[in-house]
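Notebook p. 47: complex prediction with DLZ.
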Amino acid sequence: MADRPSLILILGDQLSPEISSLRNADKDRDIVLMCELRDETGYVGHHKQKLVLILSAMRHFARELEADGWTVDYVRLIDAGNTHSFTDEVARALKRHKPGRLIVTEAGEWRVQQMIDAWANDLDIEVDCRPDERFLCSKAKFADWAKGRKEFRMEHFYREMRRVTGLLLDGDKPEGGKWNFDHDNRKPAKEDLFLPKRLRFKPDEITREVIALVEKEFPDNFGSLDNFGWAVTAKDAERALDDFLKTSLADFGTYQDAMLSDRPFLYHGLISPYINLGLLDPLAVCRAVEEAYGSGKAPLNAAEGFIRQIIGWREYVRSIYWLKMPDYRDRNALSAKNPLPWFYWSGETDMNCLRQAIGQTRDEAYAHHIQRLMVTGTFALLAGIDPHAVHEWYLAVYIDAFEWVELPNTLGMSQYADGGLLGSKPYAASGAYINRMSNYCEDCAFDVKARTGKNACPFNYLYWDFIARHEKRLGSNPRMRQIYATWQKMDAGDRKAARKQASEFLETLRADTQR
Ligand code: FAD
Ligand code: DLZ
Ligand code: SF4
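Predicted complex, C-alpha cells below:
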C-alpha cells in the first residue's frame, strides 16, 4: 500500500495549505483532487459574485499547490466527462490514479458529509476523513459542553472559548474586568461620518476568465458582477485584513449595529468569505485584533466585540448545526407558511430599509449582520414567511454563505424557527429600531411614527400583529412580558386596526411572490 499514492480531495471551502487532509502527505507521490461541479454551483441559485469568488479562489489555490510541488488533478466546470457530483468525480479519479486510500477533511455541510460517509462502502476504498482543525471547538467538545444543559447560551460558551484560546485574558480574568463590552457599542451613525475607502481588488486574468464563465453559464442567477472586488488568494485576503485593522477596527464596536443608505461596508471586517473558504485562519485573525488592542490601535470594546463574533458566535453556530442536523433544517416553531415576496429578488419595494439592504446585496453580495438580522430577517419574521424559503434566500445571496453558518443564523437566530434554541426571544421589532439605528426612514415613502393608516410603516402594524398572532407561544416568555403588557393596555380599536391592516398587507404581499 505504501507505494500507492493517496488521493487527497480538497473541497471548495478548504483552500488552506494547513488543511488537515494535506498533513503528512507526500508531495512526490500523492495526488490532490479538486473539482468544479454543477451539483455544488446549483444546490441553490448562488449570487454570481459568490460563484466567481469560489471558482477563482479554487483555481488560484490549485495553482499555488502546483507551484509548491504538488500534483493537482483539477476538473473544470466545462471539462468533457465532468459528472458534476463529488461521488462520481471521486469514482472517476480512483480509476485514473488507483490510490491506496482517499484522504479528505470533513465537510462543512451535512449534505456533503453524508456523501463522504458512504464512499468507503460504495466506492470500495479506504477513506481517511479528518477533523476540520480550522475550528477551535470540535464537535465532540461541544457535545460535551452541551450535555445536561437545559438551555444553550452563547455568552457562557464564549467565556469558555476565551479561556481555551487565552484571548484578551489578564491571568484568568477577562481583560478590562468584563467579558463583554457591548454596553459601549451599538451607536447609530450620522450621514457625515468619515468612512474609510475599503481595499478592493481588481480581477486578475484567472478571475476575469471565471467572470466570463459565470456570465455565460449562470446568466439568470441573482446579483451583479460589476463591483466584484473580493480577494481570491490568501495573500490578498491578508491585505484586506490589514486594511481593516488599520482603517476600521477602532470604530467597529461603536458602529457595529449602525446602518446608512448607500454605505454598505461602514467599519465592518468584510472577511467572513475568506475565513469560511480557508484563505484566512480565524484564530490568527483574532490574534491580530488582540495585538491591535495591545499596541493601542483599537479600544477594548472594538477588539472584544470583534473577537466575540469569531470565537463566540461563529464557533457556536457551527456547533449547534452539527449537534442538531439534519432535523434542525426542517424546524418551523412558529408555523410560518407565507411565500418569500418577489422583492427579495428584485429589490423593488417602497420600504427604503429593505430596498437598501436588498439593493446592496444584489450589488455587493454583502450586507452586514444587523441588515441581515433586523431588516430582511425581521421583516420575514413579522410577515410569517416560510423559514425554509428564507433560509434558501440567505444561502444563495451572500458571499460568505455556507449552510453550517447560514442555517443557524437564519432559521434559529433570525426566524426563531428552532423555538428558542439559539436566542431566548424572537428578533421582532417595529420600525422604531430601524429608525434609531439608521437614516433609512428619512427617505422612505412610509411614516415610521405612524402605527396604522395609509402611510404607516409596515413594520409597525406587522409587529403588533406578530405579537398578537403568537401570544399563546410567546406570552409566557419572561423576556416578552413587558411587550405583552403593552399590547394588552393598547386601545382595543387601535389593536383591531393594526391587525386588520396587517392582514390586508400580507394578502397583497402573498400576491407579490411570482412574476
Ligand atoms: P463583521 O461584522 O466584521 O464580523 C467579524 C466576523 O465575525 C465575521 O467575518 C464573521 O466571521 C464573524 N461573525 C460575526 N457574526 C457572526 C455570526 N452571527 N455567525 C457567525 N459568524 C459571525 N455569516 C457567514 O459567515 N455566513 C453566512 O451565511 C451568514 N448568514 C447569516 C444570516 C443571517 C440571517 C444573519 C443574521 C447572520 C448571518 N451571518 C453569516 C453572520 C454575519 O452577518 C456575517 O458573518 C457578517 O455579516 C460578515 O461580514 P463581516 O466579515 O464584515 O463581519
Ligand atoms: C459552494 C461551492 C460551489 C459554489 N462550488 C463548488 C465547486 O464547484 N467545487 C467544490 O469543491 N466546492 C464548491 N463549493 C463548496 C462546497 O459546496 C462546499 O465544500 C460544501 O458546501 C461543504 O462545505
Ligand atoms: Fe423601513 Fe419603516 Fe423606516 Fe420605511 S419607515 S425605512 S419601511 S422602518
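Notes: The mean pLDDT is 96. Residues 157 and 312 are 7 Å apart (CA to CA).
Next step: compare against the earlier run before touching the bench.
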